[in-house]
Write a structure and sequence with these properties.
This protein has 292 residues and is mostly helical. The chain has one domain: MetI-like (MetI-like fold, Orthogonal Bundle). 79% of the residues lie in helices and 1% in strands. The chain is built from 11 helices and 2 strands; from the N terminus they run ααββααααααααα. It has helices at 2-44, 46-51, 65-96, 99-114, 117-136, 143-167, 171-179, 184-212, 216-221, 239-246, 252-288; strands at 55-56, 61-62. It is globular.
């Protein structure tokens, strides 16, 4: 009995230390980024840096607002394409597909998440860019092309987590719905989907993080022009691609400004996650409170 309690004590403290260590790593990274960016903010001004429209390091112009808009634009366009497809696929695999189809589709979808970013980028560069160019005009390097690539890249994450959320819905919910005379589709729409919604929102949160943090594939297909795009078929530069493209040769204030770009990206991700978590908690409370 004493041995079991001792083991339980060490396991509990070990998990606690691991959690604290994870938090410390995040705080250390954020503190390092902020410290490196302070000279740029002091010299240029935080709000001038955030809302400035021009990025020209040679002329000491460091405005990232166009790249902020570009990052958000690309990410949300990718989610608009990926989320409906992911949810329909998750519902089909968990509630509709025969067992043989399910065991075939699951590893295929998981394989998509293992493909390197450079492969997606190369596919977009050699296949999607010419198609977009011939179909819609322009150079083919655009918000739309980057969003297409990101949509495919976030599909496995959203599908897998959404499927697990749907699978976790208690069987009693389904049986009660069938007992009241509901069809299978009515049960999915009015019972299973609302009950799984907190987990589905978690899946979307992970998809947002995957999309907004992607760099290599976006570099290859977005065009990397610092501008607020007038349409989805114009080129754009995101915050992550800006850091990757220029960090190799940046010095002085330019170097600090790139760390400032990372701070802005960090803040955007925190805000998006806070909003998504608020929505998740709100729906979770409503479901737990019996308003399902």
């Amino acid at each position: 009995m004493k041995t079991e309690r001792l083991n339980e004590f060490f396991i509990e403290k070990g998990l606690f230390i691991t959690a604290i260590f994870s938090i410390l790593i995040i705080l250390t990274i954020f503190a390092f980024i902020v410290m490196e960016s302070i000279p740029a903010f002091q010299e240029y001004g935080f709000f001038h840096f955030l809302f400035g429209m021009d990025w020209a390091p040679g002329d000491y112009k460091f405005g990232v607002f166009a790249m902020v808009i570009g990052s958000i634009f690309v990410t949300f366009l990718a989610l608009i394409m990926a989320v409906p497809l992911s949810l329909l696929c998750a519902i089909f695999m968990e509630e509709v597909a025969p067992y043989k189809v399910k065991i075939f589709l699951k590893p295929v979808i998981q394989t998509l998440s293992g493909i390197p970013s450079v492969v997606y980028g190369f596919f977009g560069l050699t296949v999607l860019v010419p198609i977009v160019r011939n179909s819609f005009g322009g150079t083919g390097f655009s918000v739309f092309t980057a969003a297409l690539i990101l949509a495919v890249m976030v599909l496995p994450t959203i599908i897998s987590v959404s499927q697990d959320a749907i699978k976790a819905v208690p069987q009693e919910y389904k049986e009660a719905s069938f007992g009241l005379g509901s069809t299978h589709w009515q049960t999915i729409r009015h019972i299973i989907f609302p009950a799984a919604l907190p987990g589905i929102i978690t899946a979307i949160i992970l998809g947002i993080g995957r999309a907004i943090g992607e760099t290599l594939a976006v570099i290859m297909v977005a065009g990397n022009v610092v501008q607020i795009p007038g349409s989805i078929f114009e080129p754009v530069r995101t915050l992550t691609t800006n850091i990757a493209l220029e960090m190799g040769y940046a010095t002085g204030l330019h170097y600090n400004a790139l760390f400032g770009t990372a701070v802005i990206l960090f803040i955007i991700i925190i805000l998006l996650l806070a909003i998504a978590n608020y929505i998740q908690n709100k729906y979770g409370m409503e479901i737990g409170g019996g308003t399902l």
